[in-house]
Amino acid sequence: MTEADIVLFAGLSGDFHPIHTNEVFARQTPLGRRVAHGALILSMSIGLTTRLNALDDTLLALAALDKVRFSAPVVAGDTISVNKQVAGTLAMDATRGAVTFHTRVINQEGRVVISYTDKILLKRKT
User: Could you give the domains of the chain?
Assistant: First the structure.
């Protein structure tokens, strides 16, 4: 996570809340410093997953995000990684199926910063 990531996301999303953009303000909060947007971390976790290239030829769509929990802040300088576990599969028809994952976003200290359940639609083997 870089300072530039946070600033660019503020501009892209329009979320200029001072907890993300104003160091003086953020020092006076319980977190004590500026933090990255939760939506930024969630978006980055999806991007990190696609960079695995495991689903390139089969991915159709992200169908659902459920039970999203933001459990710890992420700040500039942090490193995040994604851990996904298959929670279930569903054959929808002859050409499509769905896979549900339990996903955890983890910082460099091994602390879960976000967790959620996501379902993706995939092409089935024919």
Answer: 3-123 (3.10.129.10)
